[in-house]
Amino acid sequence: MVEWFGSSVVATGRLPLFSFFVAFVAGFLLIRMSVRMIRARVRWWPGNVRPGGLHIHHVVFGVGFMMLGGVAALLITDRTGVPIAVAAALFGFGSALVLDEFALILHLRDVYWTEQGRASVDAVFVAIALTGLLLTGVRPFGWEQFHPAAGQAGGGQGVQAALMVLSLVNLAGSVVSLLKGKIWTGLIGVFLPAVSIVAAVRLAVPGSPWARWRYPAGSEKWHQAVRRDRRIRRPLIRAKIRVQELIAGRHDLEPTVDPTPTPDPRALTRAG
After folding, report:
1. Which of 39, 87, 116, 144 registers the highest number of CB atoms within 10 A of its CB?
2. What is the spatial distance between Cα 76 and Cα 22, in angstroms, rounded to a whole number?
3. Region labeled Disordered — which residues (predicted)?
4. Contact, 97 vs 31, CB < 8 A?
5. Residue 108 backbone class (left: φ over 0; alpha: ψ -120 to 50; beta: rest)
6. Burial 121-143 (b: 16+ CB within 10 A, else e)
């Protein structure tokens, strides 16, 4: 185990990322356990921090940890020693506390245990998935082409230019996928070519920015998107929510996975 850690993590320069990842996951699990204990009104567990009656959310402590770890990492020159690992861990722990209240930052009000609060869990899951991919050595498609040393690599300028163009097309597909409401395929497509492009040419998710711009209510594409959403996407969302609530706790409101906008009667009349 020690040899594997030294050769696969330290020697490859991934020690800071490894420390960040471990601290991030640990911080998320710890804070979720804490808030669930507080919600259950467990007497022996410390409650919310309320000096003078002011509820201080854990995002405040998260920002402090991130500042401490981030500034320390900027000052540390040794990228393989214990100090940089500690700094990265502080940054990761703070990031977990901040993203766990992502919905609070987004809505500027306390929606932690409401339907809107699920955005925090989604943000944490996305961060864990992306960091895990980077930790395993996976890099965004086209990373080598845009790296400063890419010009020194073999393959010829024509091949390098073609790969660069393909990388830009793949990136554009990821952007379109995100605009179509396909968060996971859009992000995965950054690492795996063609995934985002396939997602980009398929129908958008009802309620997504792309659907609002391109699919008038009552149009044929609007109806196709709604039917596909009900048949494929909603069962997947329900399964995802069950997994998330097993880890993060159950929200007060039942899962609402119907992002279908209310059709405009005038548009329906025109369509008819």
Report:
1. 87
2. 20
3. 252-272
4. yes
5. left
6. bbbbbebbebbebbbeeeebbbe
Tokens of 224: 């196709």
Using DSSP's 3-state secondary structure scheme, residue 61 falls into: helix
Locus of tokens 């490859």:
12
8 A C-beta contact, residue 180 and residue 211: yes
Q: How far is CA 135 from the centre of its chain?
A: 15
Closest CA to 124 of 239, 260, 30: 30
pLDDT band at 155 (very low <50, low <70, confident <90, very high): low
The DSSP symbol for 52 reads G
- In residues, how long is the chain? 272
Alpha helices in 215-254 (DSSP H): 220-228, 234-248
Distance CA 117, CA 99 (A): 11
Residue 171 near residue 185 (C-beta atoms within 8 A): no
Q: How far apart are CA 196 and CA 201, in angstroms?
A: 9
